[in-house]
Design a protein that fits this description.
Length: 444
């Protein structure tokens, strides 16, 4: 744990140095595509309000000067499956983005999807010496949190203090400089599969890039897709990718829960491929142009040419009705949404004051998905696109780029995490078996 703390601190220092130089790359490694954005950082006075930039997460401090995507290779369920193929795809995306930006980039911030995320809610309490809360007191109260025994094969990816209380005043976002005697905190800890994390780090290293940060794609998709009120009052972001569907819950502008379902848009494509007996590339095209999950009376009459490539002319020139296509797609989409509902219920989502759900990611673009999701999840559902970011090409502004845009916001203005504070070595948390239960309900 101590080693991880030092690694995260080192990455923060690298990111600070990269931001001072003014250029950093964003790399979203997904199952369907690998996206790379090159960001240039300028002073906040460079952009005016009239430029159409919102106040969210330091958007005014950067603009996108290079963007590229390539088909992902060697990635399954959001995790690296074939290292050399993934390395080639990363190099292709980074080189194309560098070419557009007309400069070389050495430092990169990466997002991690899949990797079986698990959330923990922890709390800590200390007495304040001297009556005023200082930086050291924050470090001490974080160190006082009881660590769960999350297993040798897992690593901590995020550790956000989501709430502070000073004596009887709760809901403080930053107690530094305030007077009080007893400081308590609630900490959200997100752990992921260590093997999946190490593979991402190794792939980036093999591409001769220096890692300046790593973030959960569930977290950064929420940063990009949820508006300020949703982040404050409580909302869930469902990011439907190719190989996995990420879930994050936000409250008081912090992520308080994350999970992932190991199914996504690629599974729908695979079902179409098997159901219609066509190649995967043809199935993807049919899904994109004609797909849907809600049948109407017209769909029996709307015929789709399959245009296969088997060499059998009769077989290749078949037509299927759109109703038949919907009949193949809907069961898989329902299965994914049922899994999402089970995760939200387990998290205690119904106890939040607001229960807005935002669907984003490339898989969220299936027509009729919002209505079906609303029926299955039983809540208000809207389709989310990432926030507008200065210089982002139109082609990279759709729901499939929520994680990449969110990663840019994360780079520009990261929230405080455990490793941003000096943790006293003597009181560094030992792993204990005590797990915080019903944390969401008790604290919010």
């Amino acid at each position: 744990m101590r080693q991880l703390y030092e690694t995260q601190r080192a990455m923060r220092a690298i990111r600070q140095a990269a931001l001072q130089r003014g250029v950093i790359a964003i790399l979203d490694i997904g199952t369907a595509k690998i996206a790379c954005l090159v960001l240039r950082f300028d002073g906040p006075d460079r952009f005016r309000e009239s430029d159409g930039i919102g106040p969210m997460a330091g958007q005014s401090s950067f603009r996108v000067i290079g963007a590229a995507t390539t088909r992902s290779r060697g990635v399954r369920f959001g995790e690296i499956d074939a290292m050399q193929e993934t390395e080639r795809a990363i190099r292709t995306a980074v080189q194309a983005a560098q070419k557009m930006a007309n400069l070389r980039v050495d430092h990169v911030i990466v997002s991690l999807s899949g990797a079986r995320p698990r959330s923990y809610g922890l709390d800590g309490e200390v007495e304040i010496d001297g009556g005023t809360v200082g930086e050291g007191d924050i470090g001490r109260v974080l160190a006082a949190c009881d660590m769960p025994d999350y297993g040798e094969d897992r690593e901590v990816l995020h550790a956000h203090p989501v709430n502070f209380a000073l004596d009887h005043r709760s809901g403080l976002s930053d107690p530094r400089g305030q007077m009080g005697n007893r400081l308590t905190t609630d900490l959200h800890l997100l752990t992921v599969d260590a093997g999946a994390l190490q593979n991402i780090l190794y792939a980036v290293k093999r591409c001769d890039l220096e890692l300046a940060g790593i973030a959960s794609s569930a977290y950064v998709s929420g940063l990009a897709s949820l508006v300020e009120d949703e982040q404050e009052l409580g909302a869930a972001c469902i990011d439907m990718g190719g190989g996995s569907t990420s879930i994050s819950i936000f409250m008081k502008k912090h992520m308080i829960y994350a999970d992932a379902v190991r199914m996504g848009g690629d599974h729908v494509t695979s079902d179409i491929s098997m159901g219609l007996q066509v190649p995967l590339a043809t199935a993807e095209r049919i899904k994109t142009f004609y797909g849907g999950v809600v049948a109407t009376g017209m769909d029996d009459r709307e015929m789709i040419e399959t245009q296969g490539e088997t060499g059998d002319w009769e077989h290749d020139r078949r037509t299927v009705s759109r109703a038949e296509l919907i009949g193949i797609m809907r069961p898989r989409v329902e299965e994914i949404l049922e899994e999402v509902k089970a995760r939200l219920d387990a998290a205690g989502f119904e106890h939040l004051p607001s229960q807005q759900i935002v669907l984003t990611g490339g898989g969220s673009q299936i027509p009729g998905l919002d209505g079906l999701a609303s029926r299955i999840l039983g809540r208000q559902v809207r389709l989310g696109r990432p926030l507008r970011v200065q210089g982002l090409p139109q082609a990279a502004s759709g729901p499939g780029f929520s994680a990449a845009v969110g990663l840019s916001l994360f780079a520009a203005n990261p929230q405080d995490e455990w490793w941003d504070f000096e943790i006293p070595a003597s009181s560094y948390p030992a792993r204990s078996l005590r797990r915080a239960v019903k944390w969401l309900r008790d604290n919010w």
